[in-house]
Automatic annotation (TrEMBL):
<keyword id="KW-0106">Calcium</keyword>
<dbReference type="GO" id="GO:0006516">
    <property type="term" value="P:glycoprotein catabolic process"/>
</dbReference>
<dbReference type="InterPro" id="IPR041371">
    <property type="entry name" value="GH92_N"/>
</dbReference>
<keyword id="KW-0732">Signal</keyword>
<dbReference type="Pfam" id="PF07971">
    <property type="entry name" value="Glyco_hydro_92"/>
</dbReference>
<dbReference type="InterPro" id="IPR014718">
    <property type="entry name" value="GH-type_carb-bd"/>
</dbReference>
<dbReference type="GO" id="GO:0030246">
    <property type="term" value="F:carbohydrate binding"/>
</dbReference>
<dbReference type="InterPro" id="IPR005887">
    <property type="entry name" value="GH92_a_mannosidase_put"/>
</dbReference>
<feature type="signal peptide">
    <location>
        <begin position="1"/>
        <end position="18"/>
    </location>
</feature>
<feature type="compositionally biased region" description="Polar residues">
    <location>
        <begin position="737"/>
        <end position="746"/>
    </location>
</feature>
<dbReference type="GO" id="GO:0005975">
    <property type="term" value="P:carbohydrate metabolic process"/>
</dbReference>
<dbReference type="InterPro" id="IPR050883">
    <property type="entry name" value="PNGase"/>
</dbReference>
<dbReference type="GO" id="GO:0000224">
    <property type="term" value="F:peptide-N4-(N-acetyl-beta-glucosaminyl)asparagine amidase activity"/>
</dbReference>
<comment type="subunit">
    <text>Monomer.</text>
</comment>
<protein>
    <submittedName>
        <fullName>Alpha-mannosidase</fullName>
    </submittedName>
</protein>
<dbReference type="GO" id="GO:0005829">
    <property type="term" value="C:cytosol"/>
</dbReference>
<feature type="domain" description="Glycosyl hydrolase family 92">
    <location>
        <begin position="264"/>
        <end position="740"/>
    </location>
</feature>
Length: 765
């Protein structure tokens, strides 16, 4: 508590009721990894697990309350822990791959997951990004974990017992274990994964060393404890090793894994843990977190706002995670989830571009371009090894979600200045993906023949979520146009994508003023219920997807009848009741329920399609309405508590929305140079950019009441526009926001102040 009090004393109070937090030296301590963990399939408050890991690390660790194979690995309301799992899981809906678990027990050799499970309490749990500790009541053992990128240290504090044990569970679906008592060592592999295109030779090899001699050692398979055998290969394999311990005795385990081989797992362990003590690894992990978090510093918020900011920030720093390793010569190598070979170069996995193209990748481009350069080199390898760019990787191609949004991810990085990688190969990959159906419906473009010929994917040709696909393909075509133009590709080629980027107009229904599925013969799908979820749309309804014209909001506003009617239509999202039609799904999916209970009308912030919509008032001369709703959403929909999100967190996207919005701007249209203004949440935000430049965002009179931008100065000069330039921000500078309790209805109302729209782009015309 001393740390919090010091920060509070430095900052003082902004009012009689709201203490504010000053400059932090230890931001990692403000993170709550349990944010979003009070979730279940029918209601997501984040669908997160406490991720004990380093930023973008190859391996994560989490306490496991769920059963083997359950995507809800850790749920806050559970009573028992079954193990401590190495995980690579991006989402409970995607489930995991390459997982195994560790669990201490005492008394009897209990190795089955239900028998070994122990009651625990959050009162005896410490969860930090770099350290986890919990008291397991049934075993009378405290377990601690601290991570590196590909390894970890465990420390078990045992009671006095002749029967202290550690169970290692390699899970089912095919696994292997071998115990080496003289070396105090266990090796094994797991083959468990969740997606059918994963190569057959997939293995996560692991090695574990203990600092105490074994008093007993047994392999086990299924429910059978093997008496003499120290090696087993079976559907479900494991090991249980015993110790004689004194009260309070600490036994340390060092563990690492590899997707390449046992030898590489040993190498990862030696390289990352060496002779470090548990405390040394813990301090190194903490230092890495603080250094990574230091890129964005916030001051002058409340305790809750500061905790929520850093807890959300933490979630932006995991996916996609590293799948590459360093061989004995320190060369970067990876096992390919596309062809099963060991190959040179970078590889990443665990992200869905349908979610993360919106804000997560733009955040990396602004704050962490170096890691995004590695990710793009990994994308080149995805394409070379698999023939396509993934739209969801876990670890290779996954058949889930719609769109061809790898185009946005690739184009945005280059437009924002990323260089030093083979962008022309990536451009070829985008053109290939945009004009072909892939090996899965979610790779390439499903319905591409219809789309390219008709300008839309028809409703009545048995291609689901057709309107959503059309809208996303049109935006993706815009990003290909932007990249092609930047690379000086032939005009005839780029003009094709420019033309296709206007295909959104083909689905606009003047009678409803909304987007609507269209049949092959050109007639609109009927009957039409704009509140119907799914069907023509993806995890949303027409009220959510009608705003998915990222590239041309001015054109959309014109279709809707002009600026005033556009603003009125935006207002309707919040004023309509949370009506829904779930008939397409046959039951109420969790995304529907999350919208219904939020008390924000049809605004469904818990899912991605509508998250940018709040910022669209800036395109129609009503920026103060953006300022109001951004603050409202941050205040009501986010908190650093187990129920702190309002839907799936989704690989950093929903968190990146908060981080950007708290800074005061948001990337509505990736693959352009612009961020659209909202209003900052804090009195001061400092962006310490990778190039050494600093962006300072001041809002000295910011408060709960003062949520409106009265005026803005950029480097001391009055700035009337509703957008900021990425290129200019990377030069460093100071933004001074004058905040007030009443909106300024003159600022940002001229068309010259509005953000980018393709149809008003003079370069295109």
């Amino acid at each position: 508590m001393k740390r919090y009090l010091t920060a509070l004393l430095i900052a003082g109070c902004s009012s009689a009721f709201a203490q504010t937090v000053g400059k932090l030296s230890d931001p990692v301590e403000w993170i709550n990894p349990l944010m979003g963990t009070a979730s279940k399939p029918s209601m997501s408050n984040g669908n997160t697990y406490p991720t004990i890991a380093l930023p973008w690390g190859m391996n994560f660790w989490t306490p496991q309350t769920g059963k083997m194979g359950d995507g809800w690995a850790y749920t806050y309301d559970a009573d028992k822990i079954r193990g401590f799992k190495q995980t690579h899981q991006p989402s409970p809906w995607m489930n995991d791959y390459g997982q195994f678990s560790v669990m201490p027990v005492t008394g009897k050799k209990k190795f089955e997951q239900d028998e070994r499970a122990s009651w625990y309490s959050h009162k005896a749990e410490v969860a930090k990004p770099y350290y986890y500790s919990v008291y397991l009541a049934d075993a009378d053992v405290t377990t601690e974990i601290t991570p590196t990128e590909r390894a970890a240290q465990f420390r078990f504090t045992f009671p006095k017992s002749d029967s202290s044990f550690v169970v290692l569970d390699a899970f089912d679906k095919g696994s292997y274990i071998k115990i080496f008592p003289k070396e105090r060592k266990i090796i094994g592999y797991t083959t468990r994964h969740s997606h059918k295109l994963t190569p057959e030779n997939f293995k996560n090899y692991f090695v574990a060393y203990f600092d105490k001699d074994f008093s007993s050692a047994n392999a086990w398979k299924g429910k059978e404890l093997l008496k003499e055998e120290l090696e087993v290969k079976a559907d479900h394999s494991g090991a249980i090793i015993g110790f004689k311990t004194t009260k309070g005795e600490k036994v340390t385990m060092k563990v690492a894994s590899s997707f390449i081989s046992f030898e590489q797992a040993e190498l990862n362990l030696r390289r990352e843990l060496a002779n470090d003590t548990f405390e040394a690894t813990k301090q190194k992990a903490k230092d890495i977190w603080n250094k990574t978090l230091s890129r964005v510093a916030v001051e002058g918020g409340t305790i809750d706002q500061t905790r929520t900011f850093y807890s959300s920030f933490y979630r932006t720093l995991f996916f996609p995670n590293k799948l590459y390793e360093l061989d004995a010569s320190n060369k970067i190598v990876h096992w390919s989830p596309y062809n099963g070979k060991i190959l040179p170069g970078y590889m990443f996995a665990g992200t869905g571009f349908w979610d993360t193209f919106r804000a997560l990748y733009p955040f990396l481009n602004l704050v962490y371009p170096s890691i995004n350069k590695e990710m793009h080199e990994g994308l080149i390898n995805d394409y070379k090894e698999g023939g396509w760019l993934p739209e969801w990787s876990s670890p290779g191609y996954a058949n889930v979600m719609v769109g061809n949004n790898s185009a946005s991810v690739v184009a945005d990085a280059y437009i924002k200045g990323l260089r030093g990688y083979d962008i022309n190969t990536l451009y070829d990959a985008l053109v290939h993906g945009a004009n072909n159906e892939g090996p899965l419906e979610a790779v390439g473009r499903a319905g591409v023949k219809y789309y390219n010929e008709l300008g839309y994917v028809p409703y009545d040709v048995k291609i689901n979520e057709n309107a959503a696909r059309t809208l996303e393909y049109a935006y993706d075509d815009f990003t290909i146009y932007q990249l092609g133009k930047a690379l000086k590709k032939p005009k005839a080629e780029t003009d094709l994508y420019a033309k296709r980027s206007m295909n959104y107009k083909n689905l606009f229904d003047p009678s409803s003023g909304l987007m609507r599925g269209k049949n092959k013969d050109g007639s609109f799908q009927s009957p039409f219920n704009p509140f119907k979820w799914g069907d023509a749309f993806t995890e949303g309804n027409s009220w959510h997807y009608s705003w998915s014209v990222f590239q041309d909001i001015d054109g959309l506003a014109k279709l809707m009848g002009g600026k005033e009617k556009f603003v009125s239509k935006l207002d309707s999202v919040f004023s309509l009741p949370p009506t829904y039609d779930e008939s397409y799904y046959g039951s109420v999916i969790h995304e529907i329920r999350e919208m219904q209970i939020a008390n924000m009308g049809q605004y469904a912030h818990g899912n991605q399609p509508i998250q940018h919509m709040i910022y669209l008032y800036n395109y129609a001369g009503a920026p103060w309405k953006t300022q109001y709703w951004v603050r409202e959403t941050m205040d009501r929909m986010y908190k650093a508590t187990p129920d702190g999100y309002c839907g799936d967190e989704d690989n950093g996207q929903t968190s990146a929305w908060y981080v950007f919005s708290a800074m005061g701007f948001y990337p509505v249209t990736p693959a352009t140079d612009q961020y659209v203004l909202g209003a900052p949440l804090f009195k001061k935000v400092t962006l310490n950019l990778e190039n050494g430049k600093t962006v300072t965002i001041n809002a000295a009179n910011n408060s709960a009441d003062n949520r409106y931008v009265q005026g803005l100065k950029y480097n001391g000069v009055a700035y009337p526009k509703n957008w900021l330039s990425h290129k200019e921000l990377t030069k460093g500078g100071t933004l001074d926001f004058n905040m007030s309790a009443t909106p300024n209805k003159q600022r940002g109302t001229k068309e010259t102040d509005f953000p980018y729209s393709f149809s008003t782009d003079p370069d295109h015309k």
